[in-house]
Design brief:
The complex is a heterodimer of chains A (about 325) and B (about 325).
Chain A: E1 4-16, E2 23-35, E3 39-43, H1 50-57, E4 65-72, E5 75-78, H2 84-90, E6 94-97, H3 111-121, H4 127-140, H5 157-169, E7 175-179, H6 187-204, E8 207-212, H7 215-221, E9 224-229, E10 232-238, H8 239-244, H9 249-256, H10 263-268, H11 299-303, E11 309-311, E12 314-316
Helix pairs in contact in A: 3-4, 3-5, 4-5
Chain B: H1 3-10, H2 13-31, E1 58-60, H3 72-85, E2 88-90, H4 103-139, H5 141-156, H6 159-176, H7 184-195, H8 198-212, H9 215-222, H10 227-263, H11 275-285, H12 294-321, H13 323-326
Antiparallel strand pairs in B: 1-2
Helix pairs in contact in B: 2-4, 2-12, 4-5, 4-7, 4-8, 4-10, 4-11, 6-7, 8-10, 10-11, 10-12, 11-12
The chains are: A alpha/beta (about 325), B mainly alpha (about 325).
Chain lengths: ~325, ~325
Amino acid sequence: MTAPVLTIHDLHLSYPARGATGTVHAVRGVSMEVGAGEVVALVGESGCGKSSLARAVLQLRRPDAGRIVLEAPDGPLPLHELTGNALRHARRWMQVVFQDPYASLDPRMSVGDAVAEPLRAFGLARGAESRKRVAKLLEQVGLGSAVASRFPHELSGGQRQRVGIARALAPEPRIVLLDEAVSALDVSLRAQVLNLLLDLRRDLDLAMLFITHDLAVVRAIADRVAVMYLGELVEVGFRDTLLRSPRHPYTRALLDAVPVPDPARQAGRTLVALGGEPPSQESVPRGCGFANRCPLAEERCFSERPRLRPVDGTAVSCHLA
Amino acid sequence: MSRRETKPLNRAPHRTFAARFLVLVGVVAVLVPLLPLAAPSEVRLEEKLAPPSFGTLWRDGFEPDRIRDPGPLSRVLIDARIAVFGDGQLGPLLGTDALGRCLLSRLAWGARLSLAVGLVASAISLIIGVLWGAVAGYSGGRVDDIMMRIVDILYALPLMFIVIFVVALLRGFRNEHPELETNQIIVLFAVIGATSWLTMARIVRGQVLSLRGTEFMDAARAAGSTNLSILRRHVLPNVTPIVLVTLTLTIPRVMLFEAFLSFLGLGVEAPDVSWGVLARQGFDALTAVHVSAWLILFPGLAFASTLLAMNVLGDRLRDATDPRLRGDRR
């Protein structure tokens, strides 16, 4: 791995629980790195804290604890310490593409203005120069510069998502966070957008943290994969290793849940089906978060919290791996 | 603009009519001095309480000096009027009041003041209400709590009482310092405006609060926009439609309030004329022996039809800005 662009260390984020006095622990001590030009996929089921992690990393929601360091051209930026204007300018180097292409564009702002927004906000370009760069960005994502004068409701979901990507690329960031950026798209569009992202990564040496629950997407795009469960990373490793020989029982169950497009092989598979539900994030268990659903769980799994440790080149958080 | 977009309007002729009527009232209000009308305070005691008649269509005797301190615009218009019509003027077609003043002329001049009060006070409430609501909704948390509690408290106060109190205070102040020439109309503008922004603030705050949860606001922040530019570029444009609709409801409400105050003798003072003042004078002219119905009828009619037209137009504006009614066009 090359030098990390983004380093997350022991990140914690919690919300006050709705109505009650409790606290929802959405992210519990996540540490990870994303190297320059690397694509890291963050996978996990709904509600496991993937999006909360993204929000905390972007400082859209202040984390409770933890360090987030972004490597900018003129030195490392400790995002968790920055406030006000310093934080605003630091955002230039880390952009985001949101999940919902309908909700993430202002319905009353033209596409051109939306893409130009980061250029203007970071003071990178204005006037004719800005229009030229917007046109180029729109071409780059395969939309054509004529789209600039349109409004979001005139575009399809796929086109909107491309606008979101063009906008994220506008300030020439070092890393882009993609929060379920292709989940809302239908399959053909998804392939288009993924190819586009791979092209951009090759051309711009762009690092990506790709949040998804779709393992097909992971296969298509990721260098490394991080599996998240109940606010923690349970397994982190290179894509092929992790997908071929998952170490953590949860990763195994996750992979088993994907049907194989071959009836004969699908019938012959021994599947580890998961029973039950993840524990409430308001009362996180003392031991392993997965123990109550784990087919292999032993007594120690319920009392002792496992830590990420290296096993054959993969990091796994399981006593039994 | 597609053809489909104009069609629903044609299917609602009363809306077109309402719009034209309002334009007419507006034009008359602005251009009164240009019209060949008697000065609104030209007293002809020998003609007092004359009923509406077309007996005298035209006559001489315009007295420009009877128009109390006209502004620069009015002065120009009066000069133009003298150049065109000389000292000719229309007769009292709608009758006269207890001092023999021409009701038609007074209605036209009254429109001026009534509309001005409605517009200026609404503008004040627009500025305060939108800013207050936007800041409260956007800041959220404690700032929101404090700002909205202030609104709640003001809502709970009896505004009528406060206005009466302020106007009474002002009268006392004027009696002590006649040299300052404080204008009660200005105070009226300020008082009504300052008390009518509460609804606007609440509506804007609710809208902003719901906007704050949308993803595009996070996206704007991630794109490096400052709070100020998010307010200007994302919040305000998305709040505008509902503000416009609220405004069309505020203007008639404020006009009604002005008329009410003037009717009570707390608003516009003679010799200035507003529709509320006219209604008051019509009411005063009612006696057991002599009923001058026109003095109540015409000001009432003018006021009622203006308010009705505004409400119809407000409806239309609401329809036009509601995406469910606008459909998926463009």
